[in-house]
Amino acid sequence: MDDAYSTHPGASPAPGSRHALHTSPANVRSFRRAFGYRAELRLMLAPYLLGVVLLIALPAGATFALAFTRYDALTPPAWAGLSNFGVIFSDRLFWIAVRNTLAFVALAVPLRLLGALALALLLNRRRRNLKFYRMAVFMPGEIPDVAYALIWLWIFNPLYGPLNNVLSSLGLLGPNWLSDPNTALLSLVIMSLFQIGEGVVVMLAGLRGIPGDLYESAALDGANAWQAFRRITLPLLMPWLFLLSARDLILCAQNTFTPAFMLTGGGPYYATLTLPLLIYQAAFDRFWFGEGAAMLLMLFGCLGIVLWLLHKRMRAWGYAGDV
Amino acid sequence: MSKSAANSNDLPVPVGRGLRTAPLGTLRRAFPTIGLFSVSVPGALTSIRQRPRRVASRALVHALSVAVAIVFVVPLLWAAAYSLRQPGLPPPTAVEWLPSPLTWSNYARIFQLAPLGLFARNSVLVVAIALPVTLVVASWAGFAMAQLRGRSRQRLALLAIVLLMAPVASLWLTRFVIYRQLQLFDTIWALVIPALMGSNPFFVLLFYWTFRRLPGELFESARLDGAGALAIWARIALPLARPTLVTVAVLCFSMYWSDFISPLLYLKTEARYTLPVGLQLLQQLDRTNWPLLMAGGVVLTAPILIVFLISQHVFWQKERLAGVAE
User: Fold this and answer.
1) What's the mean pLDDT when you consider all of chain B?
2) What integer pLDDT is reported at residue B256 of this predicted model?
3) Alpha helices in A125-144 (DSSP H)
């Protein structure tokens, strides 16, 4: 029964109660103790912040610096100015990888979002066995990437893979999937469409947060199902859609690595060579760390711009993020 | 299909979301439990003219849900079934639901082909170190954030969200360089060290959201009794956050157990490999022996499935989802 009319997520704890804790006379009097308490809190925060500096801030800054140096992990880095960018811009493979990454993101992100929205709307109407359906949809996303890639490598096998066996039993001739340059990238997209469970769960939570009264008054006003969806569900779900699209953009821009690495190695004819794979090859196969870092900068510069535009759009629609 | 349609008419109709049951809406407001417990009332109140459409739509929802579940689960079941196929048989040319004869020999064979036992032990070791550290660091950080005052708390929460958005791939190269400088390269510590930052900013946020929802008076009275932050965290906050603790533990286990990229980038010695890289090694040894590779996939996946199924009832608590939604 835990699925029925859940609490409205907007019901946040009263902020006043804890605020009073810091301004009450008792605390003013015991200032020293309060100060000690806050020092203790800072100490508890320290490992996390230290880790963030060591594992995120420092590497991110170093990536930026590395992009302007020549570095092969053996000899000390040497300043190279913008030459790394010149090298990658004149590299044909770089542009192929850019095109493939863009194509993957442009196909996968909208399809994944639509799929998650559709599944959430579908499952939101269920009461019985919801747990089972939720688990079924959630599971493929939790399978380790390597195992997931191997399973799909087998499923996509053109000769005896189950997918083409199913198609041929329906009288269809399946394509060669991963070994055909025209369908290889599409295969990776298809594979990623089954890992939308987290998105479904987040959207289900979002749908639960919409008060049922809204639908009732809409029904009183004679709204049909589509109008209710268009005017109530969609606007109230927008923050979640924004959040998920931002997350999905980031994921899809970099998560092509394991599938491409395991399934195709970037082939056939560079059809699935995406930027993360090219960066891996440049840095860890050829030790061109400078070029690799320059490519990373390009990738995440573009991602940053897209995210910033998304954020601006969201602000303009009045969804200011409050955490 | 028709059977399910007949059955579905007896189900409690989701009153609050039903769009054509306006009178029920007012009823529900008067008796909030009506949607939960009454079985016959909604059906009775629905006018006869609308009933066939409703039945049809419910049947459609039912059929679609089943179809979705099949589409999502069947590839995984296929793979699991295929792992029981006798090696050496010609591959099937038609859809094969269950191979015959069934054999477990592939599972024994993969452990002979590659030292998967050793890799599994390495994986367990990584999780055994990373999991407790993550739980402590993330819950400390979440607790401190929840206890701090307005501005700095707001900034820290924002920082965590920005970090959540930070693409991990951008850190591959320079983490490699830093690990080499710190002599962590090609040791287990290169895999474990993300635990130092709570593994994932999302874990910190989960704890923060949980602790923030606890009533402040609890902590206040403990402080008046002279308890320090660490004592309040250990004796009050953490015991009340058990569902979050379990959730983070499950997600963290899954994260380290499946991690393929870290060992691929930061390990060189085969004896230190973890199970995911071991599976890749297996693939390189025998590229087309699919039953064998599927067995490897099952071995790698099974612990995660088991952990998820065991913790299911805690994992899906609506409070947690509401916390995400907030």
Assistant:
1) 79
2) 94
3) 130-142
Contact A136 B68 (CB under 8 A): yes
Written as six digits, the tokens of B4 are 């399910």
Q: Across the interface, do A205 and B325 touch by the CB < 8 Å criterion? A: yes
The answer to whether residues B274 and B259 touch, using CB atoms and an 8 Å cutoff, is yes
**Cβ contacts (< 8 Å) between A284 and chain B: which residues?**
176, 265
Helices (H) and strands (E) in chain A, counts: 17, 2
What fold is seen in the domain B114-285?
A: MetI-like fold (1.10.3720)
Q: Which chain B residues have a beta carbon less than 8 Å from that of A244?
A: none
ipTM of the complex: 0.78
Cβ(A58)–Cβ(B174) below 8 Å: yes
Return the closest-CA partner of residue B57 out of B22, B15, B9, B3.
B9
How many angstroms separate the CA atoms of B52 and A259, rounded? 47
Residue A170, class by beta-carbon neighbours within 10 Å (0-12 exposed, 13-18 middle, 19+ buried)? exposed
* Domain segments of chain B as ranges: 3-61, 114-285
* Residue B259 Rama label (left phi>0; alpha psi -120 to 50; beta): beta
Tokens of B44: 């009775």
Return the bridge partners of A69, or none. A79
Contact A204/B at CB under 8 A: yes
* Dihedral of alpha carbons A281, A286, A288, A291, sign: negative
Q: What's the whole-number average pLDDT of chain A?
A: 80
Task: Tell me if residue B111 falls in helix, strand or coil.
Answer: helix
Distance (Å) from the alpha carbon of B122 to chain A's nearest alpha carbon: 16
Asked whether residue A21 carries a pLDDT value surpassing 50, the answer given is no
Residue type, B202: F
Does A229 contact B at CB distance below 8 Å?
no
CB pairs under 8 A between A and B: 345
Query: pLDDT by residue (tens digit) across A99-119?
Result: 999 999 999 999 999 999 999
Alpha carbon of B21: minimum distance to chain A alpha carbons (Å) = 8
The residue written with tokens 């287990």 in the block is B188
Chain B: residue nearest A42 by CA? B144
Taking the model in full, what pTM does it have? 0.79
Q: Tens digit of pLDDT for each residue in B41-86?
A: 333 344 444 566 778 878 888 888 888 888 898 888 888 888 888 8
Select from B224, B293, B323 the Cβ nearest to the Cβ of A150: B293
